[in-house]
Design brief:
Radius of gyration: 23 Å
Number of helices: 16
Low-confidence stretches: 1-41
Strand order of the largest sheet: 5-4-6-7-3-10-11-12-13
Shape: globular
Largest sheet: 9 strands, mixed
Order of helices and strands: HHHHHHHHEHEEHEHHEHEHHEEEHEEEE
CATH topology of the largest domain: Rossmann fold
CATH architecture of the largest domain: 3-Layer(aba) Sandwich
Helix content: 40-55%
Mean pLDDT: 86
Structural class: alpha/beta
CATH class of the largest domain: Alpha Beta
Oligomer: single chain
């Protein structure tokens, strides 16, 4: 019996497999690489990796390693913790995943071609769209932070409706951490956009997250919606990003653990956006900086971890005559600026139109 077949039948023996067992499968794996590289129709899966059988695949998927890319960028320690395999086997699996992926450099021209696939989701406000270069961008994380009542959730609901209006076959995923999703509000916005309310609701997948671990798990499950359930997910809303982390990790003694978990969560969101070309919109809470004697003391929670992982950062605040002000404070390609708008029953309206 060949080594690969042995591992499929006796997957539980993987943790005890040493370097010698790994070497026995090198020839077979090389043949699979040749077959896969020789045909564009052959999809190399987790089951095709050397020393990975059904039981290990199940453990990997449970731990969030659902594709070759997630394995290729993993560390041996992470695989050992997830499956119980030894270090030699973990390194072999990672190297095999990397060998089957194009992980080298790309030219600027290739990146530009990829940028042509970016989709912009309208906010409903012309001025806001202009500030964002045409709308909220796919393949990126857009963070809106501000105090309560500044319009963060309203923008999330508006993006869901406008995304479905622009792409009637698309699906939006809404991870609700503060019980803020309201189908009644979706109905108002859908009617304002001239859409069928019932059909719009069918295209929204809502999940209520009850703690930070649940929130992180739901984000990882979005990949299953796309790949297993074949859902055309084009927008992911997390409202709000930091609520559970802020409530569960209290005091400086827990700060390092909190930031580590947030970092992992943000990278899952970023990978979803990049690999599936979907837009990720997250709302964030704020705190007041007591050391700020001049200017606005309001700052977003989450620290540099959230700041670095977010592609676009928007500060929302209340403006004159009941308006809201959106200030773009961070973007890789757009200039800083701010616009004012009103939150109406039917959507967002430009301040200048009143």
């Amino acid at each position: 019996m060949r080594a690969k077949e042995k591992m499929e039948n006796q997957d539980e023996l993987i943790p005890r497999m040493g370097v010698e067992g790994a070497e026995e499968e090198t020839e077979e794996f090389s043949e699979k690489i040749k077959i896969n590289n020789g045909s564009n129709d052959t999809e190399f899966t987790l089951e095709d990796l050397p020393g990975v059988g059904p039981a290990t695949v199940e453990k990997l998927e449970t731990a969030g390693f659902c594709d070759l890319m997630s394995l290729a960028v993993a560390t041996p320690g992470e695989l050992i913790e997830a499956t119980g395999m030894n270090e030699a086997s973990a390194k072999k699996v990672i190297n095999a995943a990397r060998a089957n992926l194009k992980m080298g450099f790309q030219s600027g021209e290739d990146i530009m071609k990829k940028r042509l696939q970016v989709v912009k989701i309208s906010t409903g406000s012309e001025a806001f769209n202009t500030l964002m270069g045409g709308g909220f961008e796919s393949g990126a994380i857009t963070e809106c932070f501000g105090e309560f009542g500044s319009g963060k959730t309203q923008i999330g609901h508006m993006l869901v409706v406008n995304m479905i209006k622009e792409n009637p076959e698309a699906v939006a995923v809404y991870i609700d951490t503060e019980n803020t999703f309201r189908p009644e509000r979706i109905k108002q916005l859908a009617e304002g956009a001239g859409l069928d309310f019932d059909q719009v609701l069918k295209q929204i997948k809502v999940a209520r997250a009850y703690n930070s671990d649940h929130q992180m798990l739901l984000a990882e499950k979005v990949e299953d919606l796309i790949k297993k359930d074949k859902q055309n997910v084009r927008l992911l809303v997390v409202d709000s990003l930091m609520a559970h982390f802020r409530a569960e990790f209290i005091g400086r003694g827990t700060l390092a653990e909190r930031q580590q978990k947030i970092n992992k969560h943000m990278h899952v969101l970023l990978r979803l956006a990049d690999t599936n070309n979907l837009a990720v919109y997250v709302t964030n809470q704020v705190s007041s900086d007591p050391a700020q004697f001049f200017g606005d003391p309001t700052k977003p929670v989450g620290g540099n971890i959230v700041a670095h992982a977010s592609t676009f950062r928007i500060y929302l605040r209340k403006g004159k005559k009941g308006s809201r002000v959106a200030k773009l404070i961070d973007s890789p390609n757009l200039p800083d600026g701010e616009v004012a708008f009103f939150v109406e029953t039917t959507g967002l309206k430009d301040f200048g139109k009143y």
